[in-house]
Each structure stands twice: as C-alpha cells, then as structure tokens.
Amino acid sequence: MALVVQKYGGTSVADIGKMENVARRVLKSKEAGNDIIVVLSAMAGETDRLIQLAHKAAEEPDEREYDALISTGEQLTVTLLSLILNRMGFRAKSLLGYQVKIVTDKSYTKARIFRIDTKRIDEELKKGTIVVVAGFQGVDKDGNITTLGRGGSDTSAVALAAAMKADVCEIYTDVDGVYTADPSICRKARRLNRISYDEMLELARAGAKVLQPRSVELAKKYEVPVYVRSSFTDEGGTLVTKEDVEMEKEVVCGVTYDRDQAKITVVRVPDRPGIAAGLFTPLAQHNIMVDMIIQNASLEGYTDLTFTVSRKEIKKAHELVEEVAREIGAARVEVDADVSKISIIGVGMISHSGVAAKMFSSLAKEGVNILMISTSEIKISCVIQAKYTELAVSALHDAFELDKG
Amino acid sequence: MALVVQKYGGTSVADIGKMENVARRVLKSKEAGNDIIVVLSAMAGETDRLIQLAHKAAEEPDEREYDALISTGEQLTVTLLSLILNRMGFRAKSLLGYQVKIVTDKSYTKARIFRIDTKRIDEELKKGTIVVVAGFQGVDKDGNITTLGRGGSDTSAVALAAAMKADVCEIYTDVDGVYTADPSICRKARRLNRISYDEMLELARAGAKVLQPRSVELAKKYEVPVYVRSSFTDEGGTLVTKEDVEMEKEVVCGVTYDRDQAKITVVRVPDRPGIAAGLFTPLAQHNIMVDMIIQNASLEGYTDLTFTVSRKEIKKAHELVEEVAREIGAARVEVDADVSKISIIGVGMISHSGVAAKMFSSLAKEGVNILMISTSEIKISCVIQAKYTELAVSALHDAFELDKG
C-alpha cells in the first residue's frame, strides 16, 4: 500500500463528465489499496473568467481581494469531485488551503509555501477518506487567502507529497509525458521515459509548459518522484526523478522555446559600480521577474545592458527602466517584444565539448540570427526573432538527433 | 457617527454595474461619517447555478461538500465589491465566514449561528475600513464551511448587527419596504412605515418574502432596528422595530400567502398516546419542517391527522408518513400538493373580537373553501385551494380596509 498524490489540471476537470473520469481514475488507484490525496486545479477557463471579472471590477485589482476571488475556482472543483466520489460510494472530503492548512507568506498572487500541516489529512486518510485538496491556494498566518501563481497547483501537489512523505506524486495533464520538444511544433518529438530533476527544471524554466518550475525545484529538494501522465490514456508517462546510473546520459535531452519573452536594451550606460543594482532593484520591487541579463564588455567607460522579461510585463518594465536610464545618464532604452527564447537542455552537456558551437552553427545554417546567448551547466539559451521559433526548434531537434531514443 | 450594517440581496449585486450602484450607496453612508459593515448575498442566479452543478455531480449531494460549494457565490460578490470600493479610493476588505469568525453548529445547509467574533471586524473598522462580509455562510468549530439556509444573508446581517451593537441594520432589496399584501397580486397593497417585530415575524413566517423569519427573530431578541429599503431608490422604506406607543395599532396590518404548501392527511389513526410523536419524529429526523398541524376530535377511538409541509419536501414526507401509517394501523394517507396558505396578521387582533369570523365570511362570500385553520395570538391562517390564492388575498385586503393608512 502506497500513499499517492494525484494532481489533475484544468482540462481534466473541465466539466462534470470529465470529473467522473477523474473519479474513476482515482478509484482505480484507491481500489488497488493506495491512500489517495487528490489535488485539483480550477475548471479550464474558470480562472480566466474570474480574472476578467476582477479586472472589470478594478483595473488594478487589490491583490488580497483578487486572490480570495480567484481561489473560488478550485473550491468548485474539489467540492464537485468529492460529491461525485461520495455518490460513487466512496468516502471523500474536500479540504481548502485554510482547512489543511497550507501556510504561505503574504505575497498575494505569488505566495510561497512555509509549511503544510499534516494532521488533518492524516486523520482523514486513517478513516479511509480520499482527501481532495484545492490546489493553487494557501492561507497566510492571519487567515487571508493567498494563491501560488499560475500553475501553482503543481506546486501544491508536490509540496503535499513532500509534507506527507508520499511515495509518488502523479501529475495528470493533457499530454502523456515530457517530450524532447513540443510535439505540436516539432513533428519528430519523442517522449522521454525518465528525466532528472535538473533537466526537468531547466526544461520547465525554459518554457516547457508541462510542469511549473517551482514544483520541480520542490520535488528535487525533497526527492519526490514525480510521474507526468495523461488523464485521458493509460499509456506513456515520464518519471521525473534523481539522476541515477540507469539513466541514459544523453548529451541533450530536449529543446524548448518560450514565446513569452521581451527584450529591453539600455544603451550606453556609464559603467560604474551600482548601475546594475540601480536598474534591477525597481523591477524587483514591482515583482517583475528578469530572465536573461547580458552586459557587454565596457568600451570607453560605457556599456550596453540587455535583459528579458515576460512579454506581459514589458509596459511596466519599460516605464521603470526609462526612469532609471534618465537618472544614470544612459543614451536611450530600446524595447523588442517580438522575440522568443530557444534552449537546449541536457546533463550530458557538462562533459561534452562543442555542444554550444553545434547549436550556434545549426541556427546559422537556417539563417536564424542570435540576439542574446546565456548558458548554464546543463542549458544553453538563445534569444531569436519570434518568427524563427518553430524553424529553430526543429533544426536543433535534428542536429542533436533527439528523435533517436 | 453611527455603526450601520447594510445588507444587499442577489438582485442588487447581479452584475458589476449593479455592484457599482451598491458601492455608491455604501459610500454615501460612509461619507456621512458612519462606520459600515456590508453583508452580501450571491449574484442573482449564481446560487441556483451552483445548486444545479451540485445535483449534476450527485443526486443527493453530501451536505458538507454542498455547503462548501454554494458558499463560493458570496465569496465572489464580497471580493468584487471590495475591489470596486478600493478602486473608488476607499479602504475595503472582504471577510468570509471563517475569517470573521461566524461560528455555527454543524447542521450543514441550515446551520445556526452560535457566536460571532467581533475582534477582526473591530480592528478593521478602527482603521476606517469598510468591512464586506459574506452572507449566508459560517464555519463550524472544526473549520468546515456551513450555510444558513435560503435567505440566510438576512440572518447574517442581523446577527452581525446584534454582535457589533450596530445602530441599525439596513436590508436593501428589490422592493421599497413591507406591504400590507404582495403588490404583485394585490393592486391596493400599501407600504407600511413601521411594523413591530412580532407582526413582521408572522408576516415572514406566513410567506412574505421580504425578510427571512430567523432574521426577524434575531432582530427581536437583540432589539436590532431593521430598516427594509430598496437598493434602486431612496424613497420609502419600512422600519421593523419594537412595538411602541407611536405605532398605529392596526387590527390587521397585512395579508400574506404562501404557495409553497402541501397537505398530508393520515386517515383513521388509532387514537392513543404517542401516535403524533411516532408520526412527526421521522420527519424531524429528516429535517422536514412541519408547518400547520390539525387533529380532529376523536371518534370511536380513531382520529384524522392533517399537516402541511413545504411542497418540495412532499415526496420524502409522503414516503416517511406512509411507513409510519402502516405501522400504526391508519386507514390511508392522502396528499394534496395543490394548496396555499392565506394569513392575516396584526397585533391589534388580541383585543378585537370578530376578526376570525370576518376572515371566514369574506372567504365564504367569494366561494373559497377553507381546508385547514390555525390561529396564533396575532395571526390567523387558512389553507385553501391554490387557485383561489389571489382572489383570497384581495378579498381580505378589502375586508380589513388595508388600503386605508
């Protein structure tokens, strides 16, 4: 008998019929003798509907109220699934963030989990209850509802699995696993049977939508085995786990892209200490995440600083940067919202030379201009013009022979 | 400076535009220097939508999950109104049942309030916050969400007014006060400026939809002045208050009807002690409220027992009664779901004779057959065939000259 956490996304609980499928899947595992904790997202489209309502009520909604509003989406799905499981003759109980308690900090809309009380869930599991926990939401120490940011239900699931010492955290989604590239734009994409936490983390960070990066960080930290599966088929699946001897150490395990990128260049910045801090502190204060940062070598006491942010934050970021640019005497600020980021990922990279060179030459061969480059131990990312995204993914997939398992 | 509780019903918060009207009304009172606690229902239609979802998920939904599901309706309206008030430049904060805390018993779907913590609201009012409380919902001592039954937001509002020692509890609805009869079926109906708690209570119990009976009971118990007003106009209004010398002691203050009635007769019941208990205990155990009960004089050791229940509970009630009827050897059970209850109410009745006679003769004159009669100190009710409802209301309104103020 194992303790299993199963997380289902919005498309898996989009209506009562789909929830009945989820219920059957839950019961299959339950009847195999497992203890089950189910974590749910809101019905597909519901969170967007609530967000629209919030923005109709106020252009810049107060974040406390916003979180209390949008968290109702998960309250709906967990109560409905519990009703369905009850009707099917099983003991099931919904628990909201404040009922579990999933205690977070006070950063509304992007809260971080401090701790999870295991007592209430333990009590219910002992009674044989299927515990259905609302994903995406938590509660601060004063009882205010918080949410964990887009895709936060993955984080809820992994955090619960870690706190409850679950044997596995199964993430059910609309694809049947993790692929070497997005199958919708790369015909030859191949599903991976296993992938390491580090690779998965870089894939997720680099734009693969299958798991929220924070959930992978958590899984790695607490060594929670995460099994990515389709909620519509029993086939396939990818296990995200510790790197081990069995694992095929591929040089490159996947190619990803992220279209949600915008590039800002501050031109001719006087190169003196504290300039970067002056530029990035206001962005941090406004909770704008900066992704890649590149600073050119200084020339005659001046330098150019280029960085990327999420496309939807470009307006605010531009405003803030213009202000600092004026203060520090930079020549001008240039913005390009028409870019995307292509990345190749693989733990094998560390011990193989020539990977970067191969990436750059493959892109060059297709006529794709590289605008920015950044590298980590197991990842190389290039910012390119958005229109080349699909071409670049396929070219790199071919170059590294990812279709061959 | 006064402390005012304002409660708005579902039609007053049906969409963002209507909520903006509510916000303006709230701010008018706030800017007059009052401290404001707003209590809201769900958007008109939302609770029904959620109830339908619940019944789609399970024919007989588990009540704990049901309450957690339908309570999201009020979570939506309180957060949206807070967003609107914030956007208009005012400090406003939503509080859910568990955040206030509004502690109830564990009777899901019809919970009763044990106590209301005033600390959190007090703190917020001191900061100048407009406190927006979710009506209809509470929390039991174990943190489970409960709801107070249909129209429970009135009860939430009055209970909050009592706990916070508010100066007045304003109930905003889609009519501009309490009338001598339902204006939609009685052309001559007249709005009352004042009405006593007792009369309001009987009116509400006898079917007037304007206030939930429990809220009036609470208002009477804690002497909370309740002001019934329209959320769409500044005109009119009815003050529900203690009976006092100023109050016009009308013999009859209003005529009401209740179409949600069904009649069950148990024919030829052996007349021995414990029979009534045997009949009504199973109904009570299934939370079926019995309204009028009439037992005929015993004849040759047998009697007939007739009583009314809510029309929507007739099926379940019939099943339960059939079972008991067999056990106790009654001849048969007759059911009539096509009846309604007409009542006249007035504190002046106690000291006036002939009120009942006048009621019966007025109905007789119109050819309306009386099926059941029950009387209290300030109310006389008759069950009649449903098709005569409007005729009976108008006839009684005329007979007691209720159009004359």
Total number of helical segments of chain A? 13
CATH-scheme architecture of the domain at 3-174 in chain A: 3-Layer(aba) Sandwich
* Major β-sheet profile of chain A: 8 strands, mixed
CATH-defined superfamily of the domain at 3-174 in chain A: Acetylglutamate kinase-like
Largest interface: A-B, 37 and 37 residues
Proportion in β-strands of chain A: 25-35%
In one word, what is the shape of chain A?
Answer: globular
**Terminus-to-terminus distance of chain A:** 33 Å
Which assembly state applies to the chains in this document? homodimer
Biggest β-sheet: strands ordered side by side in the sheet of chain A: 3-6-2-1-9-11-12-10
Q: What's the total count of β strands of chain A?
A: 18
Bin the helical content of chain A.
25-40%
Unreliable stretches covering 5 or more consecutive residues of chain A: none
- Structural class by SSE content of chain A: alpha/beta
Secondary structure layout plus pairing:
Two copies of one chain form a homodimer.
Chain A: E1 3-8, H1 16-31, E2 35-40, H2 46-57, H3 63-70, H4 72-87, E3 92-95, H5 97-100, E4 102-104, E5 113-116, H6 119-126, E6 130-134, E7 137-139, E8 145-147, H7 152-163, E9 168-173, E10 194-196, H8 197-205, H9 213-221, E11 226-230, E12 238-241, E13 254-270, H10 275-285, E14 290-295, E15 302-309, H11 314-328, E16 332-345, H12 355-365, E17 370-376, E18 379-385, H13 389-399
Parallel strand pairs in A: 1-2, 1-9, 2-6, 3-6, 9-11, 10-12
Antiparallel strand pairs in A: 4-5, 7-8, 11-12, 13-15, 13-16, 14-15, 16-18, 17-18
Tell me what the structure shows:
The structure is a homodimer of 405-residue chains. With 405 residues, the first copy, chain A, is an alpha/beta fold. Chain A has a domain at 3-174: Acetylglutamate kinase-like (Carbamate kinase), CATH 3.40.1160.10. The first copy, chain A, has 13 helices and 18 strands. In chain A, a hairpin with an 8-residue loop joins strand 4 (102-104) and strand 5 (113-116). The two termini of chain A are 33 Å apart. Chain A binds chain B through residues 16, 19, 50, 53-54, 56-62, 64-66, 68-69, 72, 75-76, 78-84, 86-87, 93-94, 96, 98-99, 143-145, and chain B through 16, 19, 50, 53-54, 56-62, 64-66, 68-69, 72, 75-76, 78-84, 86-87, 93-94, 96, 98-99, 143-145.
